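Q: Please design a sequence for this.
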């Protein structure tokens, strides 16, 4: 029972990130399809999914199409009650739904001033008062969730839930613009940035290059504030210590070098996403030893 998920971009599309995390973090089988969000083909790409006009969109195994991340979240929670998308405790679940709905419809100042971008951290960004007010509200809600329901794990409600799915791009905005938050919120942002699925999403997105870069600001930049990736580089040739790609099992055609070792992959995309953050890929790290 595999779904189809249609996303627009991995470096800049916050809504696409939410859609993907709903599947990835809860083990729901999915095929990911890219839509030309910045290539100008989005309307044509989504035409077979009418009335969808924005990403992400999912197509159920029976062909039913569902758009909008909140509708997608509730549909998946209904269809997969054992996956744990919402907290099990009724009080926690009610608060999580409140937080997700508020995030879905609110924080307009933060969205407008700080579009999600996973390339780097802008230095010297001065958030206006409206953004600071959004941040204060976000911290209030995060603290409430953690204090009431977060004792059993590092996420907003202890275990990872749809609340963390919906606030992942918010954490990315705080990181990407160096926004001022208190120690508790900063620790949560770091948790999001260190999480394997988020790192994989970012590493995959960095494979795509943009000219011009969407939402670019005339500000100095610093390295992305997540975990510092292991040093690796793409190299020419097909000579590698492994004969099969660690992801697909297909024959090696493209190679990277890391620590003096040559590891092969079945295509440039597999290689390049690994170069971007080797430690984000458990199958690669297992091969590396």
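A: Design:
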């Amino acid at each position: 029972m595999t779904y189809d998920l249609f996303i627009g971009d991995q470096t800049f599309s916050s809504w696409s990130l939410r859609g993907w995390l709903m599947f990835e973090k809860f083990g729901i089988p999915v095929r990911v399809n890219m839509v030309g969000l910045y290539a100008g083909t989005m309307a044509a790409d989504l035409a077979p999914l009418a009335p969808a006009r924005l990403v992400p969109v999912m197509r159920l195994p029976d062909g039913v199409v569902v758009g909008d991340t909140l509708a997608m979240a509730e549909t998946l929670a209904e269809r997969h009650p054992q996956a744990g998308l919402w907290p099990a405790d009724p009080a926690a679940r009610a608060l999580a739904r409140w937080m997700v709905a508020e995030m879905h419809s609110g924080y307009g100042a933060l969205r407008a001033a700080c579009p999600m971008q996973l390339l780097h951290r802008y230095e010297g960004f001065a958030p206006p008062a409206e953004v600071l007010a959004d941040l204060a509200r976000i911290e209030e809600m995060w603290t409430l969730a953690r204090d009431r329901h977060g004792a059993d794990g590092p996420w907003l409600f202890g275990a990872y839930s749809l609340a963390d799915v919906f606030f992942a791009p918010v954490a990315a905005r705080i990181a990407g613009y160096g926004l001022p938050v208190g120690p508790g919120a900063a620790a949560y942002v770091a948790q999001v940035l260190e999480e394997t699925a988020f790192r994989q999403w970012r590493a995959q997105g960095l494979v795509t290059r943009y000219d011009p870069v969407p939402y670019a600001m005339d500000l100095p930049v610093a390295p992305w504030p997540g975990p510092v990736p292991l040093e690796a580089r793409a190299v020419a040739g097909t000579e590698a210590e492994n004969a099969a790609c660690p992801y697909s099992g297909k024959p090696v055609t493209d190679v990277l070098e890391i620590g003096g070792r040559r590891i092969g992959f079945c295509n440039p995309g597999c290689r390049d996403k690994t170069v971007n953050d080797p430690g984000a890929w458990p199958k690669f790290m297992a091969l590396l030893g």
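Q: Thanks. Anything notable?
A: The two ends are 34 Å apart (CA to CA). The beta strands are 3-7, 30-34, 57-59, 65-67, 121-122, 221-222, 233-235, 254-258, 261-265.
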